[in-house]
Amino acid sequence: MDKKEDKQRLSWFWRWFLNNQVVTALLVVLLVLLILLVFTKVSYLFTPVWQFLAVVGLPIILSGVLYYLLNPVVDYLETKKIPRAYSILGLFVIIVALIVWGGAVIVPKIREQVVSFANNFPGYVEVIDQEIQEITKAPFFGELNVQLGNIGDEITSWLAKFLQSISKTTVQGIGSIVGTVATIVVAVITMPFIVFYLLKDGKNLIPYFLQFLPTKWREPSLKVLTEMNKQVSSYIRGQLTVAFTVSLMFILGYSVIGLDYAVMLGILAGILNMIPYLGSFLAMIPAVFIAIVAGPAMLVKVLIVFAIEQTIEGRFVSPLVLGSQLDIHPVTIMLVLLTSGKLYGVAGVILGIPAYAAIKVIVTHIFQWYQSVSKLYNDDIKKDETQLK
């Protein structure tokens, strides 16, 4: 009798606890959180690893970007019976020639415009301040003068405190500046070698890593890694192509209307354009700032250039180059940008979207695996299979 009751109790415990999918999932989550908690307690053991990654991270990221840009060209030349090593060396020669040309022609022009803008910036601020004061003297703004004055005093006080904090931390930041310069030097020296071997043997990396996995894991892992590589490479190539096109359009447009610092503003617009949705509007701030100083006619011309650029980019360039490759909702992109920017600064804003795309691929495949194993989503799986057919 006791054995029978024990079996009934065991079967109840098995049915409602051990064999329950929800409880099992919660236990897995609990174990993962416990593992993360343990890692936080022994994080000091991984300090050398983080320091190593801080040194090699920049050259690896830059090498990856160049790899994704140059690999299609090398693959195309390989189809034309040109050995990969010769194609890579030829591309390196072209890149070095472009760098030398840019250093001799474009860099001095940018430096001249940046120095001129920095020298004239106080005068620009004074002109804009005078115009704002003239506008606020109008009867319509009479009741707001006091409030605007208080806001201006608060902004001035904040700027004074900000400049004071910068002056205090300048000396303290010399060590970090030296470290940053050293990291950049290491990246410049090591990056060509990394890019060369990536272009030469990059196709063998995934099979090399897969051989360390159990046999039954290799096929799904290959599928995940291939999809991640496709997502990230398409995004990087697309964003850089669009950024280059936007930069050329702004340089041409600003030069045609006679706006000062056209080259500097165009290159800045191209760089900021790599930030989805926000980059173009951020790039307009300095252009509008300079246009206001130049006069109302120039402001109208700048707005017309911006409208033309946005139309060409939104209707032709971005759809042709980027398409809908990432399939990420705009709200999700904004949340990712805000989060990654808060955590990792400028690097997080630039790399947040491709990192999210890669993580999304992993999570999607894990969920699909859980669907098939748990058998809790049989109807959804059947619908997916029907849609695929």
**Poorly predicted parts:** 166-175
State the helix count: 13
User: Would you tell me the structural class of the helices and strands?
Assistant: mainly alpha
Q: How large is the radius of gyration? A: 28 Å
DSSP strand count: 0
Helix content: over 70%
Strand content: under 5%
Sketch the major β-sheet: none
What is the rounded distance between the termini?
A: 55 Å
How would you describe the shape? Answer: globular
Question: What string, H for helix and E for strand, traces the elements in order?
Answer: HHHHHHHHHHHHH
Mean pLDDT: 75
Give keywords:
389 residues, mainly alpha
Write a structural description.
The chain has 389 residues and is mostly helical. It has a domain at 213-374. Helix content is 87%, strand content 0%. The protein has 13 helices and no strands. The protein has helices spanning 2-18, 21-41, 47-79, 84-136, 145-172, 174-201, 205-210, 215-257, 262-272, 279-294, 296-321, 330-374, 378-388. The relative contact order is 0.06.
Task: Please outline the helices and strands.
Blueprint: H1 2-18, H2 21-41, H3 47-79, H4 84-136, H5 145-172, H6 174-201, H7 205-210, H8 215-257, H9 262-272, H10 279-294, H11 296-321, H12 330-374, H13 378-388
In short:
87% of the residues lie in helices and 0% in strands. The chain is mostly helical and 389 residues long. It has a domain at 213-374.
